[in-house]
Design brief:
By secondary structure, the chain is mainly alpha-helical. It has a single domain, classed as Proton glutamate symport protein. Helix content is 77%, strand content 0%. The chain is built from 20 helices and no strands. Helix 3 packs across helix 17, helix 13 runs parallel beside helix 19 and helix 16 packs antiparallel against helix 17. The two termini are 24 Å apart.
Length: 448
């Protein structure tokens, strides 16, 4: 949180300095903007260099964990299928909701023009969003050369190959699979360490970039950032709201009972910005709603370790907003590409506060859609509020989905099905998957 406030302070200071320098007509503005653009650009390039290795390594390890979880028992399989379905549903909601909201409540035209000019003048070049037809789009997602796809920043074909490779890897015997997944896990850990080093310089980078934007766009930048927070948070709130009908209709629990049970977990999520830290009260909330421990101790760790349901919706919302900011038209094929990347890469994202994973999660979506990533360096400074919505929405949906998963298991038992090829009376002893059982018990032991 200290770094969050420091980055936000750097944003405010940079905008104020740029606006003030312009308003008072101080000498040396052009030279100062050039220097600021260079400093901010170097910092942004430092983050950009981590995108490809981080996406590939996290996706391989994430899919490997997903497949391992699904192998564990029938509860784990139901959990994986349920959360994958919810990921795609929330992403589809954002793909429709965000363009609609921007059509109804667009960024003020003058602010959009000023901001677009400030970004394009200071950093690189615009990339036209894909406008290809459906047939050409479908042909483009299968890479003939994955290495060339990585070199050319063709993220969607690269992600498709990586996902297929990871699924094939997961089907190999453990003796062959585990060294490879350990290798990519090590790469992910090392690259995340580099991201941490670069983010330690975020106040300097954001200050420099904000100075250039303030000098060119003036005070319109402030209103635009507030508009961004409202639009992107709306996508997260929609995914968050979806949790309540999932619990009521899928889990057959009363609305007020669900709201009361999940409130402590939501409070922890608000204070920590971490789904992982919210796991103990999530387990307690599930118990209060009548979910058997044999279900919650599998479903919730799977959700926390692998899936974050609001993330693809909000990540896609950010990319669509940046295109709106820069005046780039988005064809249906571009939005479809972004939605696919958002839903797939979420499986490999890290369960850490949003500023750690903001650029590495959203930049692949922007690249796949043909959208410049330069604005992301400013948006990271106001990520605090959207990230709160992300975390609370994830926690709420995790508990809601767990009630639905438990209900599905009850229905199957009532129909005479067992939990993992066992007799009905032996369901409680079925093997558990996802995170280790010892880890789940440790979290349960921490519950109040």
């Amino acid at each position: 949180m200290a770094r969050t406030w420091l980055i936000l302070s750097a944003l405010v200071a940079g905008l104020a300095l740029g606006v003030g320098w312009t308003r008072f007509g101080l000498a040396g503005l052009a030279d100062a903007v050039v220097i600021a653009d260079s400093v901010g650009g170097i910092w942004l390039d430092g983050l950009r260099m981590t995108i490809i290795p981080l996406v590939v390594s996290l996706l391989i390890t994430g899919i490997a964990k997903t497949v391992d979880s699904a192998r564990g028992d029938r509860v784990a399989m139901r959990s994986v299928v349920t959360f994958v379905a919810l990921l795609w549903i929330s992403t589809a909601m954002a793909a429709v909701l965000v363009p609609t909201l921007l059509g109804i409540f667009p960024m003020p035209a003058e602010a959009a023009r000023s901001l677009a000019a400030s970004i394009s003048t200071g950093h690189g070049h615009h990339v036209d969003a894909p406008t290809v037809g459906v047939g050409a789009f479908l042909r483009s997602i299968v890479p003939t050369n994955p290495v060339a796809a990585a070199a050319n920043d063709a993220l969607l074909p690269l992600i498709l190959f990586t996902a297929v490779f990871a699924v094939a890897l997961a089907r190999l015997p453990a003796a062959q699979r585990e060294p490879v997944t350990a290798f990519f896990d090590t790469i992910a850990s090392a690259v995340l360490l580099i991201v941490g080093w670069v983010l330690a310089l975020a106040p300097i980078g954001v200050l420099a970039l904000a100075f250039g934007v303030g000098a060119r766009a003036g005070t319109s930048a402030i209103g635009a950032l507030a508009h961004y927070v409202v639009i992107v948070s709306s996508a997260g709130l929609a995914a968050w709201a979806l949790a309540y009908p999932v619990a009521v209709f899928g889990g057959r629990v009363r609305l007020l009972a669900f709201a009361k049970a999940v409130a402590p977990a939501q409070a922890v999520a608000l204070s920590t910005q971490s789904s992982l830290a919210s796991l103990p009260p999530m387990l307690k909330a599930s118990a209060d709603l009548g979910v058997e421990r044999s279900v919650s101790r599998v479903s919730l760790p799977v959700a926390v370790a692998i899936f974050r349901v609001t993330s693809p919706a909000m990540n896609l919302a950010v990319a669509i907003y940046v295109a709106h900011w820069l005046g780039l038209p988005l064809a249906p094929s571009a939005i479809a590409a972004g939605a696919a990347v958002a839903a797939i890469t979420t499986i490999g994202s890290v369960s850490l506060p949003g500023q750690v994973s903001f650029l590495t999660s959203i930049a692949p979506i922007c690249v796949a859609m043909g959208i410049p990533i330069e604005p992301l360096a400013l948006l990271i400074a106001v990520e605090m509020i959207p990230d709160l919505v992300r975390t609370v929405g994830n926690v709420t949906m995790d508990v809601a989905a767990t009630t639905a998963i438990a209900r599905m298991g009850t229905a199957q038992v009532a129909a005479g099905e067992d939990a993992d090829g066992l007799e009905v009376g032996e369901i409680a002893s079925a093997p558990r998957a996802a995170l280790s059982t010892a880890g789940a018990q440790e979290f349960e032991g921490a519950m109040p």
